[in-house]
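Ticket closed. Logging final result for NIPSNAP family protein.
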Amino acid sequence: MIVEMRTYHCAPGRLPALNERFTQTTLGFFEKYGIRQIGFWTTLAGPSNHTLTYLLQWESLAEREQKWNAFQADPQWIAKRAESEAEKPIVERIENQFLQPTAYSALK
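Final structure:
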């Protein structure tokens, strides 16, 4: 198992729009493509409260590449994402990391 940690740094005041896009649109596409989420978090205390961090679970990097690329290329997703940013951009930058559990991790 591999865990992908993705952190979205939103433009000021745009975190509510990102949360709405996930609940109304993105999670449906995740389901369509078999993308498994572990959880989503907003930053309570830290350098910025304009961030959303979430974890995705993958069996391998090959699975991630296949499913993520299919999701990103979906014409309906592209249209919905553009629609959600018609007023102004939501995300300024994205960071992602791929994490591999240790032998002593509770999550494996």
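The radius of gyration is 15 Å. No further action required.
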